[in-house]
Amino acid sequence: xxxxxxxxxxxxxxxxxxxxxxxxxxxxxxxxxxxxxxxxxxxxxxxxxxxxxxxxxxxxxxxxxxxxxxxxxxxxxxxxxxxxxxxxxxxxxxxxxxxxxx
Length: 102
What we know:
3-stranded antiparallel beta sheet
């Protein structure tokens, strides 16, 4: 099963997910929205936010690599299929990650 996870979606944390897919999706969302160095007992958890200062093409490539590496390390129950970007005219860029579960 493949699911899309968007960084722009602000969903509530479910402390009792009903399915494994729901749990994995929530974990992936947490991984890709957590700034690296912000978790006290695991400073390398998350994605490096200093990338946002890079030129856009370089930032996009670096973010893709960071996301794939972080998900591989912290949520091995899924596989990253694709990382894409959705932007708007205001210059806001959201990351969409498609993962395969199972």
